[in-house]
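hey can u check if this looks right to u? its 142 residues, i copy pasted from the old doc so theres a chance i mangled smth
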Amino acid sequence: MPYRIIAEECKGCDTCARVCPMRASSGEKKQPHVIDATKCIECGVCGRACPYGAIRDPEGNTPERIKRALWPKPYIWTEDCVGCEVCVACCPSTALGMGEKDGEYVAALYDPKACVGCGLCEQGCPVHAVQLVWPEGLKKSA
């Protein structure tokens, strides 16, 4: 079940649409937005970003608003990375890239500010070398 927007609480600020890695959230400025259930991957990015608490998770709860600097980031277990580039291809914000480390061709987080913490890289990695990590003290709320 996807995330959803409560129309009566949405101010149409466009924040959810700007941060959604799948472009599932849309709407006119200053009008209630909607989330396309066929595109939503339930990553929780929209809920973490919504300044009005207008978004509900699949269980109907209002996700905790979290500053972007505290969103999760992918950690690459370079000893497990096989250099297949699947995570890089999955990343909608082009935050990941490939490079050389200790003579091996591996994935790395090259643009942490671009990363929205959606987890597509983690889901896509065929060898489980990518793990989404929350800053210490924060629980996964997505």
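Residues 12 and 69 are 23 Å apart (CA to CA).
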